[in-house]
Write a structure and sequence with these properties.
The structure is a homodimer.
Chain A (H helix, E strand, L loop, with lengths): L1 H12 L20 E9 L5 E12 L9 E5 L25 E2 L4 E2 L4 E5 L20 E2 L4 E2 L9 H15 L4 E7 L1 H12 L6 E5 L7 H16 L17 H14 L3 H4 L21 H14 L4 H12 L8 H5 L5 E6 L8 H13 L4 E5 L8 H4 L5 H9 L1
Parallel strand pairs in A: 3-6, 3-9, 4-5, 9-10, 10-11, 11-12
Antiparallel strand pairs in A: 1-2, 2-6, 7-8
Helix pairs in contact in A: 2-3, 4-5, 4-8, 5-7
């Protein structure tokens, strides 16, 4: 059981083409991955990206008023695959337990959209469509690399807004997401308060404080140390990408996004054939497992995209004087979901958000999601909250 | 105030020659740094180290029975400077608030010893005396580098035992330390139960579980990525040590050993002249501060010693089948002190230790140490527990 949960957690963090095979009712919908293209996008920092392409998927039907839409925003290492399957026998999306026909977020009632962000991490997984440093810079005919403009989290929202406009969406019954998806939901609520009825940030924070900024700097530091990084210029033929550095970066994310019980099964055993008591280079079994899992993920990811994702998070709500200034713009109902054993956005971040919303007079529900996976309980353990979510949507 | 606490915390983690200048009564003792040498030491892994030298300091007087001794074991980035000053006007030791004449650990009553561990981190601070990879390997006439034998935490205790024997100590009224010092105190309690009356592990754990093993692997990974690391062979003239990797490693320790309030004063400001919204290489002020603090620490530390310290921690209680098997050997009274906002040894580690000791029928007190510094509250915030410690010592 613990092994299955750990596997699920590792996979949930990986490219979603390898997402957790959560047991589902037979009704899981087949969804299609589509591509949205938009041109002449000017970033919040003032740079122009001539062409942007991002992947997305939908379920359900938009009503004539265009007001039964739900957008699901993804976590740091996720993509659009929040619900449904791309084909029979393929894995279901990470929140499929709460999104689908008859489920908490009922696709018989709501038109549900989820898209890949800009600078998405999973650029080599064969499913993710994104624009970022790996994309062709039309001015040079080569990948942008670090010439790609800095992307703020608000840019994620602006591109999603163009996608929603193209689909005819006028109102959002709900904006929701886990972790970085929660940050996006909050950024949405501040950016477009007049079009949003409800916000459900899961395992998130309304404040990206210096502590969080520092941690994300720690996450990316192995990439900058890898001699193959070469200041982001590693796409040319014959060059090796900074896979080791990226793997170490992903390892930090993997461990911090879980909790003690998720690794307990490894005990304190040495890796096979290794002797940590006698050889300084030898490894424990848990280290070997994490090395291999991180390397597998690094092979479908891109190091520059990791740096840009970090920066987008560090620039969360960067256009507002404070979290209070941002949240005070929202007129929505809120449902904050936190994991008490979260080591990324600790419980305090969430309870502070609830207290702030209450101080601002906003209606706010609060629930805890539990399990052995720490932060990731909010990705793989949401099923027990289905009734709470359903009730929230009926208010 | 916050600035002072942050500074204190950063310095507490740094070489203790730069330790926090905590306001003290005038009575702080002048202590002398001495050197203990022992030969022909066989590690628990079976390798021989021909000569070991470690620094130590004492205060108070050993009684005729040799049973009024206290040993204070240091944290990961600490050294013997737990109490006293090396000269008037110099900074006091990190626990000087609770160790000294008339203080909780009263040097008028107890003979207090604290020593530098093997493979101590602060090899270039001018105060620390240790033996490890930087030391001369008599077989080659060059530094051992990664040929130095692996050191287990039990080896720390064995060398300290030789030191205590040389001083005539027969019983320990108390073994205590913070963080890695708590682990050493527990290792002492398991190794020499018949000579220990009391154990006070502060911000520690009785279990170094796979989660902790994984985190320490994360701590050291920047060193292994630094191209200057060269598999530990960087002592030759003309070679640069892996200072960047070591600085990034120390940065992780610094951040994880504190808590959100300790960094709050930086806000979300860009570093001077930097623009994180427009240039991907630009930094936030908190990042710049942490970069500089980490680099300053790296310059007085050694990367190979960092790796060996990590391994010593990962090998905590490695000779016992379980924490329960180790702790069941102890006949001592226990006083467990935890910081509720600890991000290294979270509160759970400490409450589990208390529960285990109670299950084993051992007398155990428990107290929390609070403040804005997370884990480091147990290093710089112990003064309010003085009466509890005094009471513990009188039982």
């Amino acid at each position: 059981m613990k092994r299955r949960l750990l596997l699920a957690a590792t996979l949930a963090l990986a490219a979603l083409s390898q997402a957790p095979a959560i047991a589902q009712p037979a009704a899981t919908e087949i969804v299609e991955k589509k591509v949205f293209e938009t041109t002449g996008y000017v970033t919040r920092g003032g740079a122009t990206i001539p062409t942007i392409r991002i992947g997305y998927q939908t379920a359900g039907t938009l009503n004539a008023a265009g007001d039964n839409a739900v957008i699901v925003t993804h976590f740091f290492s996720g993509n659009s695959h929040a619900f449904g399957r791309y084909a029979e026998g393929q894995p279901a999306g990470y929140w499929d337990a709460i999104i689908g026909p008859g489920r908490a977020i009922d696709t018989n009632r709501y038109f549900v959209i989820s898209s890949d962000t800009l600078v998405n991490l999973n650029v080599r997984d064969g499913r993710t469509v994104t624009t970022g440093p790996v994309s062709m810079n039309p001015a040079t005919g080569r990948p942008w690399a670090l010439d790609f403009p800095v992307i703020a989290m608000r840019d994620f929202i602006e591109v999603q807004k163009r996608l929603l406009d193209s689909l005819g969406v006028r109102r959002l019954a709900l904006v929701t997401g886990a972790s970085m998806g929660a940050l996006q939901a909050i950024e949405w609520a501040a950016a477009y308060p007049q079009m949003i009825d409800r916000v459900m940030p899961v395992i998130g924070s309304s404040e990206f404080d210096p502590w969080a900024i520092a941690w994300l700097d720690i996450w990316e530091s192995p990439i900058r140390l890898d001699p193959n990084f070469n200041n982001g210029d590693y796409y040319a033929q014959g060059r090796e990408p900074p896979t080791r550095g990226l793997a170490e970066a992903l390892k930090i994310v993997t461990v911090q996004a879980q909790d003690r019980p998720a690794l307990a099964r490894f005990g304190r055993r040495a890796a096979e054939g290794q002797d940590p008591l006698r050889r300084i280079g030898d490894r424990f079994e848990v280290e070997r497992f994490l090395d291999e899992a991180a390397l597998a993920r690094a092979r479908v990811s891109d190091a520059n995209h990791f740096l840009y994702l970090v920066r987008a998070n560090q620039l969360f709500l960067h256009e507002y004087a404070s979290s209070e200034a941002a949240l005070s713009r929202s007129q929505a109902r809120w449902f904050v979901v936190a994991s008490p054993t979260d080591r990324v956005f600790m419980l305090d971040y969430n309870t502070e958000m609830v207290a702030l919303l209450r101080r601002l007079g906003r209606p706010v529900d609060f629930a805890e999601v539990t399990g052995p996976l720490g932060h990731l309980n909010g990705v793989v353990g949401m099923a027990p909250l289905a009734d709470r979510i359903r009730a929230f949507l009926q208010n």
